[in-house]
Amino acid sequence: MTDLVLEQFWEHMKVDPISGCWNWQANRNHKGYGQYKIDGKTVKAHRFAFEVNRGKIPDGLQLDHLCRNRACVNPEHMEIVTSRENTMRGFGFTSLLAKRTHCKNGHEFTPENTRMRKSARVCRICQRNYRNKSRKKLLQILVIASFVACIVLLGAMTGGNSAFGESEKSDCLFSPFRSLIL
Ligand SMILES: [Zn+2]
Ligand SMILES: [Zn+2]
To answer: 106 CA distance to ligand 2 centroid (A)?
Structure first.
């Protein structure tokens, strides 16, 4: 490989200062990978860039774009994998989840708002909302239950049941929760 060929090759890429991707500007194939013609032979630009910088890719193995940008020819953004690994990473459930930037309710997965549970990310805002909701529900059930209990007790007392004295009556009126605790 002559220096001139290499020089010309690198002229076709543009560095993205944010992602660090070296975006291929010339031809791309239908899958979005850069293409380049060297000595009349068309090669994949990202494979070529990798092999020039980091050595030959063993037969049967593939290059995986860690940056998920197929047009990128930055050798540091690629890793040699088996074809199975590559498929798993590209379409697998975990990779889909990892690519998601927001939770299902639209809260962003920022470092502050993300908790790792096993290998899944959990949104803290959602978790807090969920906890508050179940707490409210529990309180509602408690209030309703104590009302029902109170009504039953009052009914029993006004019905002339002598099992309840005056003290139980006032307890029931002033503290609806008492009947639950007892
Ligand atoms: Zn990249
Ligand atoms: Zn959320």
So the answer is: 6
CATH code of the domain containing 67: 3.90.75.20
Distance from the alpha carbon of residue 114 to the mean position of ligand 2, in angstroms = 9
In a domain, 135, yes or no: yes
3-state secondary structure at position 34: strand
Contacts of residue 64, defined as CB under 8 A and 6 or more positions apart, other chains included, come to: 78, 79, 80, 81, 85, 86, 89
**98 Cα–ligand 1 center, Å:** 17
Q: How many domains does the chain have?
A: 2
Average pLDDT over residues 35-44: 92
CA 89–ligand 2 middle distance (angstroms): 24
If you measure from the C-alpha of residue 33 to the centroid of ligand 1, how many angstroms do you get, rounded to a whole number?
12
User: Whose CA is closest to 153, among 140, 166, 139, 138?
Assistant: 166
Residue 93, pLDDT score = 53
- 14 with 77, same domain? yes
Quick one: which ligand is closest to 46's CA? 1
Q: Specify the length of the chain in residues.
A: 182
Check pLDDT > 70 for residue 150.
yes
